[in-house]
């Protein structure tokens, strides 16, 4: 992102954090704008340009009542009808275009020895990203508020891989989802280091349509491990591919958004942004 856009997202993130923490009071436009030290007029414009909806509408998307309503509506058929909601572009994205391939036992155990990994930094509506790929697919995406820290985390996962900073077609194809022009996307392949249990959890996350939510218990039930909510939560927390594998769409059964590896304010932003985009497609 350009520096100005980075600053704008930081402002949006601070505003969303404030809205998230104070949604019960339904803070006014003026009150939220005051928190990020800009005028209500400029805040309204900045926020609407980013989210596609007004701050007031966005506030409705992230209230507890809205989350509970979404969970209740999707309780019975979330995974059976995930891709039959009529939003042929948005809701079917992962069903049509995402494919997970687990790494071989050798690749898994030896820290990526003999793996050649390309990595680059990219833009997203939610901040800068570190994106990494092997010849087989995307192996890692993380929000890179600190680029050096993000790269060191990648190298911790694959300590013996050979790294090259470069943009490749695999990365470009995956990142095109943020443009929402998915008609020309080739199948997005993910090449992931994970246990059989983790891979099963991550595959299940792909079945949660954009703009919808699930609970940890619902994911556990979907993989036929109904008593394993805690283990499911750990696997979700270990998700190595931000946004593409939508762990941000999993919230607590109470409707509370809960924690997120890259910050609860960012998770809130992603949930609200996706709800807004989905409603815009329906309109």
Give me a quick take on this structure:
The chain has 13 helices and 8 strands. With 283 residues, it is of the alpha/beta class. The chain has 3 domains: 1-110, Homeodomain-like (Arc Repressor Mutant, subunit A); 116-184, Double Stranded RNA Binding Domain; 196-281, Winged helix-like DNA-binding domain superfamily/Winged helix DNA-binding domain (Arc Repressor Mutant, subunit A), CATH 1.10.10.
How would you describe this protein?
Residues 1-7 and 76-96 have low confidence and may be disordered. Strands 4-3-2-5 form a four-stranded mixed β-sheet, sandwiched between helices. A two-stranded parallel ribbon has the order 1-6. It folds into three domains: 1-110, Homeodomain-like (Arc Repressor Mutant, subunit A, Orthogonal Bundle), CATH 1.10.10; 116-184, 2-Layer Sandwich (Double Stranded RNA Binding Domain), CATH 3.30.160; 196-281, Orthogonal Bundle (Arc Repressor Mutant, subunit A). Helix 1 crosses helix 13 (264-282), helix 2 (29-35) packs across helix 3 and helix 11 (216-222) crosses helix 12. The chain is an alpha/beta fold. The protein is globular, with a radius of gyration of 19 Å. The chain has 13 helices and eight strands. It has helices spanning 3-21, 29-35, 40-51, 55-61, 64-74, 93-97, 105-109, 147-157, 169-175, 196-205, 216-222, 229-237, 264-282; strands at residues 98-102, 116-122, 129-133, 138-143, 162-165, 188-192, 214-215, 250-251. Keywords: DNA damage, DNA repair, Methyltransferase, Transcription, Transcription regulation, Transferase. GO terms for molecular function: DNA-binding transcription factor activity; methylated-DNA-[protein]-cysteine S-methyltransferase activity; sequence-specific DNA binding. This is methylated-DNA--[protein]-cysteine S-methyltransferase. One of its GO terms (biological process) is DNA repair. It comes from Leptospira ilyithenensis.
